[in-house]
Amino acid sequence: xxxxxxxxxxxxxxxxxxxxxxxxxxxxxxxxxxxxxxxxxxxxxxxxxxxxxxxxxxxxxxxxxxxxxxxxxxxxxxxxxxxxxxxxxxxxxxxxxxxxxxxxxxxxxxxxxxxxxxxxxxxxxxxxxxxxxxxxxxxxxxxxxxxxxxxxxxxxxxxxxxxxxxxxxxxxxxxxxxxxxxxxxxxxxxxxxxxxxxxxxxxxxxxxxxxxxxxxxxxxxxxxxxxxxxxxxxxxxxxxxxxxxxxxxxxxxxxxxxxxxxxxxxxxxxxxxxxxxxxxxxxxxxxxxxxxxxxxxxxxxxxxxxxxxxxxxxxxxxxxxxxxxxxxxxxxxxxxxxxxxxxxxxxxxxxxxxxxxxxxxxxxxxxxxxxxxxxxxxxxxxxxxxxxxxxxxxxxxxxxxxxxxxxxxxxxxxxxxxxxxxxxxxxxxxxxxxxxxxxxxxxxxxxxxxxxxxxxxxxxxxxxxxxxxxxxxxxxxxxxxxxxxxxxxxxxxxxxxxxxxxxxxxxxxxxxxxxxxxxxxxxxxxxxxxxxxxxxxxxxxxxxxxxxxxxxxxxxxxxxxxxxxxxxxxxx
Length: 572
Fold this sequence. Notes:
The structure is a single chain. By secondary structure, the protein is an all-alpha fold. The protein contains 27 helices and 4 strands. The strands form 2 sheets. It has a two-stranded antiparallel ribbon with strand order 1-4. The protein is elongated, with a radius of gyration of 27 Å.
């Protein structure tokens, strides 16, 4: 067998059957709907929980001849910002007020908390869960708490689906997690109490992240290393943007959060077709020693890509899979603790966990912070999400030419600075909002970097569980985001201060991670241990691969157990 027919690792086999062809384009298009559904799961709660403009309902005035504006003017005191109070009302003898045809409120009238519920501006805004259940004023914490439960559900989901992903494959997790997201999205609108709604949000959250992350892993595992950034981010750029931009106007058109939920989550029924149209991860099959299934997928890829592959290549791949299977049987099964037993892997994993937690917290804060901007919720929501498109497109270019390390550092650093700059300019709504949107733009760029970084740092044998832990920690960090946004009730600048400092702090960990651009994904723990050890600190892909590595001693080369380009190119 000649050297060209020898398959040394999965990426070798992928070159033979086609690492960028019709099959990869097909996988990329199959991945697009998951970006749309991610928008439904992650963004829709902002609109569903939104409290429309509201004021105390005064029963004695409802059936009077006064118009709506006259009722508000007469019965609702002004707050410190000279706006109608949301939670206080005047409480004179309304019968006497009406009999005397009083048209102006008396500041000396007694003021009390709303006692008969609230009225909402449904002429200009949609019905939400907050308006249906009067979760305002003293109960305004309930929507924020339900979102915290959503993220807590995500922690349990990450543990469960991460285990399933590494032990039973990617396809079962894709179907299970997205089905749970669909059913919870359809059933939550039937809630009649807060705890029923909270339970629905918890169950919905259990599928959050993994319903997108696992298909993301599957998509990038099948493509050439030079196309991973494109495949991973083009769907976010286009379909997550579409998902977010049309949602506010769709719920405004429907006018009711229940109809909105049924309409968007009902679309996820197409997930049930995944087992018949999407292949299992051959990289996972190969790493687990499932020889025949892996070969079947490889032959299918070659057929779709119209590649003529010699039979000896398949035999070499079969030998590789058998060798992997024998290794699995002769050695103890990898556990997630193996990520922490080797010094370099441990350092990289801990740093990427910290980075991913900060990115997710800052990103989710910038998404939800639209409620703290002095714009229409529909316009600010659309503009905020529309920034996904240019940020995602820029990240495709940036991650390729600048790399992952400096992309994470620059994007988070600029995000933090922009949000802090919005504070002294708060009196100018346009300028301060512009800086807030710049922060949102940079947070989106950072999020795309984080998605890709976590996948690429983890070895294939533990990629599902490793990314699962990363998602658990990220979701744990995201539980803080509703409270950071809600901190505006303490001080209007507090969310910007907290987000800004987090962004600046998050710019540091990425500098000490290995650069994963232009190298094959590590398949084994041995490859992951050598990951990045030879990279120059200030190298970026734009400098060229020939300038990437430090000079390497011969004894270090002998430690490298793979022919992966990242671990074997030497400059002895």
